[in-house]
Write a structure and sequence with these properties.
Two copies of one chain form a homodimer. Chain A is an alpha/beta fold and 384 residues long. Chain A has two domains: 2-156 and 345-375, Medium-chain alcohol dehydrogenases, catalytic domain (Quinone Oxidoreductase, Chain A, domain 1), CATH 3.90.180; 159-320, NAD(P)-binding Rossmann-like Domain (Rossmann fold, 3-Layer(aba) Sandwich). Chain A contains eleven helices and 19 strands. Chain A has helices at 50-57, 113-116, 151-154, 159-173, 187-199, 210-218, 232-243, 257-270, 315-322, 324-336, 358-364, and strands spanning 8-16, 21-30, 38-47, 61-69, 74-79, 96-97, 101-109, 122-126, 134-138, 143-144, 178-182, 202-207, 223-226, 247-250, 285-289, 298-300, 308-312, 348-350, 373-375. In chain A, the strands form three sheets. In chain A, strands 3, 7, 8, 9, 10, 18 and 19 form a seven-stranded mixed sheet that branches. In chain A, strands 13-12-11-14-15-17 form a six-stranded parallel sheet, with helices on both faces. In chain A, α5 links the parallel β11 (178-182) and β12. In chain A, α4 packs across α5, α4 (159-173) packs across α9 and α7 crosses α8 (257-270). Chains A, B: InterPro entries: ER (IPR020843), GroES-like_sf (IPR011032), NAD(P)-bd_dom_sf (IPR036291). Chains A, B: Residues 20-306 form the Enoyl reductase (ER) domain. Chains A, B: Keywords: NADP, Oxidoreductase. Chains A, B: This is NADH oxidase.
Chain lengths: 384, 384
């Protein structure tokens, strides 16, 4: 608490101009004073999640990126292709702060008891604008990290842990008994594997490469299906028949994968069918698309009858649907198992200014397995 | 009742042999005696619905059809393409009766009071095997037609009327306030138009050709969007914005249409959006595919955010979901409005043997608007 709090501080902003130019830069803004129910947090760790990249770079083509500004105040410019401008209409001309989640130290607190109780504590935060030196939030939204947990430990306490837990919750509430996950070697995928193992839920992991399959098998995963293997569909059908999984969460969100999963689910179900129905199995088969790793159009031939659904899925609307009490139970589990079940791993820790370095952008924008970056806005800054 | 009931009678059967040959013929089978709770119905009218054609011809290529047998006992053979045989696995070698619904005269009744009460009545039936001279069913499944209604009037009392009513019911129960329908000039589409007009529900009709648009406008339809018009998507977006429709029932079930509808729904919603969200509108957008008029793979680029679903939909599983009481209410409405709201129109009435005439097959298998056929198994048969 001895550090002096500056009058103004840095925050990363992303702007798409009406002519299609993206500009990402560090804005200097007044540091707010917390109101009664609020706390001011010095942000010390914020992950670069796939879900942040969409807002950070919009639909810009990073192949056109130009890096300017100074070492302390870098600026990235890039062009949004004409064809993608339609999807940018809602944000044109708005300088938007970025960063869904983070963690840091509470350095100032409002007058309320709830706010005062957090002073000096390390807390996890959710709510946008986390790529910033300071962030002012309502005390009630903070998750106090357990003894011994650093800001880096708590930086990813919301998005991935709640997403993985909500997937299992959704599976149970909709009456499914096992689930499928794609891009399964990701941080999120490994977390889901640990939850399912702990809860005794069968998980079918779909990965894109042999080394990802090896990684998951090394962690003890029982059902791992590699899309690059020639027998992918028959291996997947076997795994679906063995587990009875009829719900999938797909991070790729494009191409033919969702349809292939539904086709294999139907093939697995038809192994035990007793009577012919030209409408296919009556068991409902569900694929939720929760990411967009694959930008290709979705395409599938319907080989799986009529009892199926493909839809978008987002964790926070889902938590809203199940209500505050159920959500609180999930959050408590995250806090209790922060350094075990919900541990995240990062390839590198970078500063706010580093976020706009060409090599860093190239690395984290690739969204490859094991290449997740952690931003530390407290790093490389003069403490006055 | 004076007619003598023969010991055996004709029933249309469809068989796909393991080598991929389809064979459709008239089988002669013993006429069953009704048990206590059953009635025997002389079938006098059964429509050829799109939902019947799938079972009737399987995945056979009718371009390969060969017509044989005699005038009284015709036989149709055709070949199922190698690539489609996977979808036929469940029915190989089974000689299957066809015909989802029909109507006719109760000519014999079991001992129960419910069965006896139906003797001499004209009833509508559901439950398969309706392309037959006689059909034995449980008394409780019969819908007694109102005074003055013929078997032809009641032949389509189940599939189309309940489908149209269930669509409106589904719209209401899921919290939508208007709906979209494709292939909207069909018998079903015209019925849905009449229901929606009566109920004060806004309906957006999508058709494929100008003459279909003219037909619906002639019936008083307010929102008609013609896919062949160059401004189809902007007209559809206008109609969606005007009505607030966020649920669609799509009979085509293939190609790009479902994705285009979702894209236009999102565009309509974004007209009134107040804040940018990179996940798109939070209003849930739903497309149900209930038919397969378009055999092309489903394809779409996601331009509509994360709050959407595309799924299969069938009327009878949906009625099961809403329960017996709600379903009964819908059936009562059908009986009460059989000759008005739920009237069907047929291009021709044909006999069982006519069903396998080349010109008839060519006409009804094309599934074109205004070309629905009614089968009268009582027609052209010697009454002994």
């Amino acid at each position: 608490m001895a550090d002096k709090i500056p009058a103004s501080a840095l925050q990363l902003h992303s702007l798409v101009k009406p002519d299609g130019e993206l500009e990402v830069r560090l804005a200097e803004l007044p540091v707010p004073s917390p109101r009664d129910h609020e706390v001011l947090v010095r942000v010390q760790a914020a992950p670069l999640n796939p879900s942040d990249l969409g807002l950070l770079f919009g639909a810009a083509d990073l192949g056109t990126a130009r890096y300017g500004g100074t070492a302390d105040r870098p600026v990235l410019n890039a062009q949004v292709p004409e064809t993608a401008m339609k999807s940018m209409q809602g944000r044109l001309g708005q300088s938007l702060p970025v960063g869904n989640e983070g963690a840091g130290l509470v350095v100032r607190a409002g007058a309320s008891a709830a706010a005062q109780a957090l002073l000096g504590k390390t807390v996890a935060l959710l709510g946008g604008a986390m790529y910033a030196q300071y962030r002012c939030v309502a005390a009630e939204t903070c998750l106090v990290l357990p003894e011994g947990a650093s800001a880096a430990d708590g930086a990813s306490a919301f998005v991935n842990p709640l997403t993985a837990l909500a997937m299992v919750e959704n599976m149970r509430r909709d009456g499914h008994r096992a689930l499928v996950h794609t891009a399964a070697a990701s941080n999120l995928g490994q977390m889901l594997h640990r939850i399912c193992r702990q809860d005794g839920v069968a998980l079918v992991n779909i990965v894109r490469r042999p080394e990802q399959a090896a990684l998951l098998r090394g962690l003890g995963a029982q059902y791992v299906c590699d899309m690059s293997a020639p027998d992918f569909e028959s291996a997947l059908t076997d795994a679906l028949a063995a587990t009875g999984a009829t719900i999938a969460f797909d991070a790729t969100g494009g191409g033919r994968l969702a349809g292939r999963i539904l086709g294999c689910m139907e093939a697995a179900l038809s192994r035990t069918a007793v009577e012919y129905s030209r409408y296919g199995s009556t068991t409902h088969k569900q694929v939720f698309l929760y990411g967009r790793l694959d930008a290709a159009p979705i395409e599938f031939a319907n080989t799986f009858g009529m009892a199926w659904d493909i839809g978008g899925w987002l964790v926070f609307p889902y938590l809203q649907k199940i209500g505050a009490e159920a959500t609180q139970a999930l959050k408590q589990r995250v806090a209790a198992e922060l350094k075990t079940t919900f541990a995240s791993h990062y390839a590198a820790e970078i500063s706010l200014a580093d976020m706009l370095r060409p090599d860093a952008v190239a690395a984290y924008a690739a969204r490859t397995t094991g290449n997740k970056y952690l931003v530390n806005p407290d790093r490389g800054m003069a403490r006055s």
